[in-house]
Specification:
By secondary structure, the chain is an alpha+beta fold. It contains three helices and eight strands; from the N terminus they run H-H-H-E-E-E-E-E-E-E-E.
Length: 183
């Protein structure tokens, strides 16, 4: 990418400024190295400032009370988690791999149980779900404190294909200060 910009800049310079003296290969390499290094240092500095200032994303910190409720995939699948640890799934998609490692989607309906694990921090929160006759993966948390979401990876985790459930409780509004645990 840098080489593309460098070549384009050199051609444009030659066309727009024909009277300017030509640089030798060594001098041109020096200028490209200087400005390339300056660009990399600037990008790393800005990224460091952004992370230090807290501009990085962090999933909302949930609790058992906050996970309990109705979750929907927006396609007819719903998951009802009650505060006493019971779960009811209706057409919630589950994912398996066949012999050729292609994703097989199945609709899951049934009753079961669930448990919230806060983990060591916001990135390791999990909702463990067990529904009769269904193979359920462990759900992870993301979204915002006002709009939390649960997700599982579909197929290869590196592909970041996600199956997402959003909170669908009506009339529930949460106002949480940034950085505070959600209770």
């Amino acid at each position: 990418m840098t080489a593309t910009f460098a070549v384009t800049a050199l051609v444009a310079r030659r066309l727009l400024l024909p009277d300017r003296p030509r640089f030798s290969g060594g001098a041109m390499f020096g200028w490209v190295a200087l400005y390339g290094t300056l660009a990399v240092v600037t990008a790393i500095t800005l990224a460091g400032i952004g992370l230090y200032a807290g501009l990085g994303y962090e999933p909302p910190r949930l609790s058992t009370e906050r996970v309990a409720g109705t979750w929907s995939d927006g396609k007819g699948g719903t998951l009802i988690l009650t505060s006493d640890g019971k779960a009811t799934a209706t057409r919630v998609e589950t994912f398996d791999l066949d012999d050729s490692f292609d994703t097989v989607v199945q609709k899951c309906s049934g009753a079961g149980t669930w448990e919230y694990d806060p983990g060591a921090g916001p990135w390791s929160q999990e909702v463990d779900l067990s529904v009769d006759d269904c193979s359920m993966d462990t759900w992870s948390v993301f979204g915002t404190p006002e709009h939390p979401k649960l997700f599982v990876c579909v197929g290869d985790p590196d592909s970041w294909d996600l199956y997402i459930l959003q909170r669908r409780d009506r009339g529930v509004s949460f106002r949480i200060a940034p950085g505070q645990p959600v209770s």
